[in-house]
Write a structure and sequence with these properties.
Layout: H1 2-16, E1 46-50, H2 58-69, E2 73-77, H3 80-89, E3 94-98, H4 102-109, E4 116-121, E5 134-138, H5 143-153
Parallel strand pairs: 1-2, 1-3, 3-4, 4-5
Amino acid sequence: MRHLKSIPLALAAALAAPAALACGEGIFNMGEGLRYEGYLAPRPATILVFEPDGMPSDERIAIYRGLARAGHKVSVATDASHASEAFASQSFDVVVADDAHAATLASLLGDRSPARRLLVAPGKPPRDGGDASRAYVRGSASVGTWLGALNRLLKD
């Protein structure tokens, strides 16, 4: 009989108690996602993109915008004369070019060429072979992959 009297008392106490949040409850609310936080490059670089075949594709433009949002300063040269003008006006930390155009760009720039190159391979990128001044990314890679490759290049 005594237990029957304590049940309504316990129920009243439970209803009167303030809501207690579980650990992390304030972060994970149903129906609401966490806010997206943009990535900032730890080593922002000035980048020249060499696109001699004309304007880059929409996918590449989106990647270049992602690099710029991360803090890199991206310039695009659509032919050899634009690349020469860009190198005459400023210095670049990294040059980005398709693997097929890398030799053309290197011969065009000569000793003005920066030490670091990010080469875009159409298929599976070849192994770097331990060359710290060169990195490869797949042409269809995400912005995160590009940012990771740039970060590895700029570490030294």
